[in-house]
Amino acid sequence: MPAPTLAGGRRSSSFLFCLALSLMVPLMNSSAPTPLYPFYKEQFDLSALDLTLIFGAYGIGVLIALVAMARIAGNLSDLRRLFVPASLLVLVGALAFAQGTSLGPLCAARLLAGLGSGVMTAAVNVALVRFNPGHNDKLPALVATLAMVSGLALGPLVSGAALQLELRPLASPFWLIAALGLASAVATLILWPSRAASDAAAPTLESTRPTSLRQALRGIGLPFHLCAWSVFFSWSFAACVFVIGPQVAQQVFGLQDPGVFGYVICAYLLIAGMSQFYCQRLDARQALLSGWLCQCLTLLILLLACYSQALYLALPGLAIGGYAYGALFVGNARLVNQLAPRHSHGKLIAYFYATVYLFNATPVPMGLLVDAYGIVTASNVALGLFLVIGLGLFALARRTRFAAR
Question: Same structural domain for residues 152 and 55?
Fold first, then answer.
């Protein structure tokens, strides 16, 4: 029996909008601290390593939640049992981060927020598929992509504006995020489909024995792993930009207004979002290779920019990097869907994202490098290392045939 659509087009559209807003809020929460990291460093006497630990705590929470949700999200008849706890975790995490004044509380708040973001991502994505007006196959992915891109871009925009206007920049962005999260959660629960519609849309249990992860991984070959590690590489570079980038902008390129860096990151993420939409039209392998070409070009331009301390090179380099971010994600994600066998698709997708989300640990050695050798040397060494590894992975991707076995 097909899942029923929601009664009433206007109510259905409002419900989808609220779901999208509920997904957008935790993504805002994830990116909002980006322009604030130098401020935290000065106000609370934190090291570069401390900043990377704050960033990584959020990612650990997301990773734990996604791994747990891979087992249960699709089998729940009432998704509100995930949605409500996720909303509370996002709310508490944002409010706690606004009150944090030292490394421990800030990391704990980010861990809570990451857990909420992971559970919310799973709950909303399943809900978008389950309550799909008109059974439009492209609608859930489109709504989720728009929500995530908007959230990632709005976070640095809000905190950058708070910095420039001196509106309690360490607290007010997170108060706003908490308020938006609470409002979207209440509205979504009010508009939630009736119990009858929820029960009818819930999945039926399959009688087939589930495949273990070890069985699913057996025989998938190099292409699947290459896809996972390609996105890991791309997101690792972006993570270093988010955490260490504000210091590089100040000390290497002389960009003294930290709020401006928030706008730069907002533009970077918007370009990444537009890239994802554009690359949907391309062949998956074509999108992957174009992303790798632009990623390596970005690293080369930024390496030259840091060496010459030329801001006019760094800005177009980041713009090209925004395209690479989107293209590599779209190309690899589509290839993974093609490569994963139907009988173990869910577990392999969970493995793919678990591998990718290890990127949150990458800024930690970067932080150690900055503390030991300074921001200039650390930036040049890191960009050079990224470029060498990127060229190797690009060459491997060009030689690999991405065909399902």
Answer: yes
Considering only CA atoms, which of 232, 270, 214 is closest in space to residue 59?
A: 232
Asked if residue 139 belongs to a domain, the reply is yes
| Domain finish residue from 153, 168, 202 | 202
Say how far apart CA 59 and CA 388 lie, in whole Å.
26
Rounded Cα gap, residues 143 and 244, in angstroms: 31
Return phi, psi of residue 151, to 5°: -65, -45
For the chain, give the number of residues.
405
CA-CA distance, 24 to 207, in Å (whole number)?
A: 36
**Quick one: 179 and 239 in the same domain?**
no
Residues 223, 186 share a domain: no
Q: Which residues touch 126 (CB under 8 Å, ≥6 apart)?
A: 73, 74, 76, 79
Q: Which domain holds residue 396?
A: 211-405
Distance between CA atoms of residues 271 and 285, nearest Å: 20
Query: How far apart are the C-alpha atoms of 225 and 395, rounded to whole Å?
Result: 15
Q: Are residues 307 and 277 in the same domain?
A: yes
Q: Which two tokens stand for residue 185?
A: 């959660």
Segment 326-350, tens digit of pLDDT: 999 888 888 877 776 666 666 676 6
CA distance 143 to 145: 6
Same domain for 123 and 47: yes
Roughly what angle, to the nearest 10 degrees, separates helices 284-308 and 221-251? Answer: 30
Tell me which residue of 168, 212, 226, 223 sits closest to 355, measured CA to CA: 226
Interval 90-129: pLDDT, tens: 999 999 999 988 999 999 999 999 999 888 888 887 888 7
pTM beyond cutoff 0.70:
yes
| 216 and 196 housed in the same domain | no
Among 169, 322, 180, 171, CA closest to 259: 169
Please state, in angstroms and rounded to a whole number, the distance separating the CA atoms of residues 265 and 258: 11
